[in-house]
Specification:
By secondary structure, the protein is an alpha+beta fold. It has helices spanning 27-45, 90-105, and strands at residues 11-14, 48-50, 56-61, 64-69, 76-79, 84-88, 109-115, 124-129, 135-139, 148-159, 164-173, 179-185, 189-190.
Length: 199
Amino acid sequence: MNLTDVHGSGFELNTDASLVDPDWEDFAEAHDRRFGLAISHFKSLVKGRAYDNKVMRLRVGREGFYAQARNFPAAFFGDTRSPEVKTVSEVDAQAAVWEAVAHYRAGEAQSLTTIYSSDDPPDVFFGYRLTGDRRYELGQVRSSLPLHLRVLVDAPDVSPLIGARAGVLIYQRTRRGEHVLIRAGGRRQPLLAGVKLVD
């Protein structure tokens, strides 16, 4: 079955919620049980251009796109719709990054992930909106341009950042120093919504 054929709307796979204050003792096994097969399927499905850097793998093809952290592969986001891909100037990239952070701070984004360095441990910010005004946050937002940013917008009005009320924006600084913006308006049905795992 091709995931994009179901109801013609496609699917997204987002592991953000699993990264919110997990039980690290059995995290790897539980995460693999829940997401392992789906992540493997996305990676086999999306054949296309690579926009990788030291911290993130980013692939975009006709069947969709995905982003996966190199040193923490449990951090994964994939979507079965083809996004808009644009190479921009550093100034435009910085403006998009600041707008993404503003959406998150205003409560108009479900999550914000930024990776600023490939150090061990890396300099990162991860923010996830739980319910209402409650948020889970790890790290600190910096003013510098990150190596990678992903924001899941969920705004009351159309966001100029993605051209829709909801959707995803990914910024990636590639190994060659290009500034790439990936936009996909709208949200797809979560691939594993409502799935009950059997031990």
